[in-house]
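RESIDUES AND SHAPES:
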Amino acid sequence: MSKEQWPNYYAPESGLTEKEEKKIDRACKKLSEAHIQKQILDYLNGLSNCKAIKIMAANEAGTPDIFCCYRGVTIVLELKASEKEARESQHKQKRQHLQLKQWGETGAFVNKIWNLDMVKKIIGDIGTKI
């Protein structure tokens, strides 16, 4: 959902505080990420020779969102709401960046993603390298 879908909440006469508006923004972002995540998992798990899971809770801070094995290749994905958030997260979420770096060093395909097309490109790239 976007602000446009909730116009009465953002009208100046709504009486919401800045804190309340930020809370609504975060809720919209989470809904958007959840929708993209579902699309990605449905796509990956619909491929033959592919299994993908979403990590809901982990013992280590910064654990990436999605782990996948496609045709014997490990893929580790960190889902972001936008390209801007993906760029900013490198500086804001150092532990997460370190986790992705460590997975990449093991030979996994590692990427920050913000839409399904990016995942399709990764799968296509892997298909040409196997």
In short: The beta strands are 50-54, 66-70, 73-79, 109-113.
